[in-house]
């Protein structure tokens, strides 16, 4: 048998379709988030990450802030570390019966993922994420912004259905994810539509007690900004696809929407290894995407009665912190690793310590005065 730390990335990726057919949840959760990040930049950046980032084998929960994942002590298969989800499919424990929760349906990519499996235990009073155990399988370990908003900067008891999936693009037909098993925003919305959209007894959400959030675009742009053609027009195409999905959510009863723009990922350590031309190129595409996002959200709200939109300007918040890291307790804007004074948890994802600021911003500013 092989150990996960010694097999090659291509071997592991090659295994995925097979393993996926057996146990999709385990594949997603057993996948090293840093492997996901390699896929995020498939193509010209691929080799950089592969050589820099060892595959994790075993993740150990250290404390509320950090789960450490060490290579070298892997079990003998590629499927690792996800505790089994044992309860009845799609059910909520009876302990939730008396709880009066509000609902958050969250969609996105690795910046948002916690490893939720919709057919597993649903959010409940013991674990507001349902599954996996809080804080879930986040990109760099520890609690991410969804966890902080759900449990720390929440204005009520929140049950969070987090469909976000590492590596996600809006639509795999528009921008291919790094591997076909990635659930795109389209797939995630379909998961919602085919499970709890009809407000089953397990999930008694209403138009007024539910918030729908979408933070997407990082991988769409990361995997396409360097292509030829009119990138602004392509951002329109991407956002039209996103808002067609938003319309489906509206048709299912969604009225409250939190939109999140794309942060300055050209300032990630991974992109800082690229040329300044590359950084500038990606920056420009992000700016175009973000300004269109605001316009589309406004147009959507104007065209559909009863819609309330909230906005978290993640681009502004990342920029503020990265321009003055020490103000926020970070030693600089470029290091990555596991220290509490490091903004980037790895070379493409913010640390849990950064996510705490994001959660605070969303809970206390973007959603200020709301029930969420
Ligand atoms: C990446 O690795 C492959 C396989 O080793 C190689 O063919 C390719 O030239 C490399 N690309 C870059 C940009 O280094
Ligand atoms: C926030 O969420 C936590 C965890 O579910 C819960 O214990 C707490 O009561 C919530 N806060 C408010 C203000 O409802």
UniProtKB/TrEMBL annotation:
Signal peptide location: 1-21
Xref: Gene3D superfamilies: SGNH hydrolase (3.40.50.1110)
Molecular-function GO term, any one: hydrolase activity, acting on ester bonds
Keyword field: Hydrolase, Signal
Pfam families linked: Lipase_GDSL
Listed InterPro entries: GDSL, GDSL_Est/Lipase, SGNH_hydro_sf
Protein name in the entry: Carbohydrate esterase family 16 protein
Organism the protein comes from: Agrocybe chaxingu
């Amino acid at each position: 048998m092989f150990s996960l730390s010694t097999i090659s990335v291509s071997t592991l990726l090659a295994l995925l379709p097979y393993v996926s057919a057996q146990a999709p949840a385990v594949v997603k959760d057993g996948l090293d988030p840093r492997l996901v990040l390699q896929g995020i930049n498939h193509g010209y950046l691929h080799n950089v990450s592969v050589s820099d980032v060892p595959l994790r084998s075993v993740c150990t929960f250290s404390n509320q802030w950090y789960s450490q994942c060490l290579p070298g002590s892997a079990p003998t298969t590629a499927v690792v570390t996800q505790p089994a989800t044992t309860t009845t499919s799609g059910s909520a424990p009876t302990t939730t019966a008396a709880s009066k929760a509000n609902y958050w349906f969250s969609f996105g990519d690795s910046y948002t993922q916690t490893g939720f499996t919709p057919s597993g235990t649903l959010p409940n009073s013991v674990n507001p994420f349902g599954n996996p155990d809080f804080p879930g399988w986040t990109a760099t370990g520890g609690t991410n912004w969804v966890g902080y908003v759900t449990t720390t900067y929440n204005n009520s008891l929140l049950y969070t259905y987090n469909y976000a999936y590492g590596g996600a693009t809006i639509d795999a037909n528009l921008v291919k994810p790094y591997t076909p098993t990635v659930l795109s925003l389209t797939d995630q919305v379909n998961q919602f539509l085919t499970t709890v959209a009809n407000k089953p007894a397990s999930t008694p959400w209403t138009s007024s007690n539910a918030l729908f959030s979408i933070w997407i675009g990082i991988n769409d742009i990361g995997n396409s900004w360097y292509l030829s053609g009119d990138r602004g027009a392509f951002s329109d195409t991407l956002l039209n696809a996103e808002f067609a999905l938003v319309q489906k959510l509206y048709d299912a009863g969604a009225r409250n929407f939190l939109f999140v723009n794309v942060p300055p990922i050209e300032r990630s350590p991974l992109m800082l290894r690229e040329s300044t031309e590359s950084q500038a190129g990606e920056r420009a595409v992000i700016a175009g995407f973000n300004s269109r996002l605001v316009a589309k959200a406004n147009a959507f709200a104007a065209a559909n009665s009863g819609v309330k939109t909230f906005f978290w300007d993640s681009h502004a918040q990342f920029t503020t912190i990265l321009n003055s890291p020490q103000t926020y307790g970070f030693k600089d804007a470029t290091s990555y690793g596991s220290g509490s004074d490091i903004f980037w948890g790895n070379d493409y994802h913010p640390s849990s310590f950064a996510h705490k600021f994001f959660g605070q911003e969303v809970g206390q500013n973007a959603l200020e005065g709301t029930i969420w």
